[in-house]
Amino acid sequence: MKYFVLYTLNEHYVSEKYVKGKSYEHVVNRIQHYSDGILSTNKWTLVTSNIAVGYLREIQLSDFPLLSKRDFGMINENQSYSYHELTFLP
Question: Is the pTM of this model over 0.70?
């Protein structure tokens, strides 16, 4: 499992979210898929259509002693939606 920090710029502030996944490519692919809708993990939910800029950075937990594995959420595909999926919800 790899660990990442997702930095997002929304209006006037920068947000920092912690996410884990199989690989950098996998996490980027999931973020791109839901980039115009809602991205959910077991820890947080992010309305991605409101984000101006996003940056994903892979980190090593040993470099951040105040973070633990429990601080990181995994992308929940059952609770994440792209714009097209949102427009077809009943």
Answer: yes
Specify which residues 57 forms β-bridges with: 5
Q: What is the mean pLDDT of the chain?
A: 92
* Residues 27 and 44: beta-carbon distance below 8 Å: no
Q: Please identify which residue in the block is written with the tokens 């429990």.
A: 70
| CB contact at 8 A, 27 and 19 | yes
What's the pLDDT tens digit per position in 65-86?
999 999 999 999 999 998 888 7
Q: Which of 17, 8, 4, 18 is nearest to 60 (CA)?
A: 4
